[in-house]
């Protein structure tokens, strides 16, 4: 992308977007009205800055768009960053939003007699196979990961596996499906991310936006 083209900021659909929205305004970035219209089908949005546009994509896709240069900046959880490990992504700021945790969960009945310390081999349904495999490998446990993109809670019910690794916020979804957390892998927050190549070719513009978001965080903490 040439230096006279607008910068593209990739934002995640869903829960995190509601937390991102006030940060955008505080940083002086206002999307066009359609951005706040839940019925709008468009994915690209103009802003009050001629040289920055917003795209709205799935949370996992934010990192991919930024890593491969489709977007120069983005906001996504560190779960996504750790799962993909893209070298082309620089994550200068923890935005202190999107708080949740990545946990191992299993059926409540199983948990009454199960001892995670005795595991040697586990079959896990998750959309985070890389993180999951590394986590268990560090403990000397062999993990057979079944990749699912959603509805993880169904896997134990339908006999696909006995345990899952997924993001947990309130724990209500686990409870509703007869599951309980048995181990916490990591805490998750959302980060401002930048394409490294874009940062080298357009350092002033991107640094200005990093600074704007950093100022917002400082004001929030004051």
Global outline:
elongated
Structural class: alpha/beta
> What would CATH call the architecture of the largest domain?
3-Layer(aba) Sandwich
* Biggest sheet strand line-up: 2-3-1-4-11-5
Account of the protein in words:
This protein is an alpha/beta fold. 34% of the residues lie in helices and 30% in strands. The protein has nine helices and eleven strands. Strand 7, helix 5 (129-138) and strand 8 (142-147) form a beta-alpha-beta unit. The longest helix is centred in the C-terminal third of the chain and has 19 residues, at 203-221. The two termini are 38 Å apart.
Summarize the structure.
This protein has nine helices and eleven strands. The protein has 222 residues and is an alpha/beta fold.
Outline the fold blueprint:
Elements: E1 7-12, H1 15-26, E2 44-45, E3 52-57, H2 59-67, E4 73-77, H3 78-84, E5 89-94, E6 100-107, H4 108-111, E7 121-126, H5 129-138, E8 142-147, H6 154-157, E9 163-168, H7 172-176, E10 179-188, E11 190-195, H8 196-201, H9 203-221
Parallel strand pairs: 1-3, 1-4, 7-8, 7-9
Antiparallel strand pairs: 2-3, 4-11, 5-11, 6-9, 6-10
């Amino acid at each position: 992308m040439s230096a006279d083209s607008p910068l593209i900021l990739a934002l995640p659909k869903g829960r995190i977007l509601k937390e991102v929205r006030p940060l955008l305004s505080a940083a002086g970035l206002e999307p066009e009205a359609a951005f706040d219209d839940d019925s709008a089908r468009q994915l690209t949005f103009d802003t009050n800055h001629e040289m920055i546009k917003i795209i709205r994509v799935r949370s996992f896709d934010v990192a991919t768009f930024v890593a491969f240069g489709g977007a120069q900046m983005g906001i996504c959880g560190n779960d996504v960053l750790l799962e993909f490990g893209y070298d082309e992504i620089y994550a200068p700021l923890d935005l202190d939003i999107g708080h949740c945790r990545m946990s191992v969960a299993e059926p409540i009945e199983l948990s009454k007699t199960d001892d995670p310390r005795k595991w040697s081999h586990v079959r896990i349904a998750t959309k985070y196979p890389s993180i999951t495999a590394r986590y268990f490998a560090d403990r000397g446990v062999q993990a057979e990961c079944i990749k699912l993109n959603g509805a993880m809670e169904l896997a134990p019910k339908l006999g696909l596996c006995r345990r899952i690794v997924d993001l947990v916020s309130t724990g209500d979804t686990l409870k509703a499906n007869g599951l309980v957390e048995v181990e916490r892998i990591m805490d998750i927050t959302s980060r401002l991310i930048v394409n490294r190549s874009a940062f080298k070719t357009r350092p002033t513009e991107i640094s200005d936006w990093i600074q704007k978001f950093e100022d917002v965080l400082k004001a929030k903490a004051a």
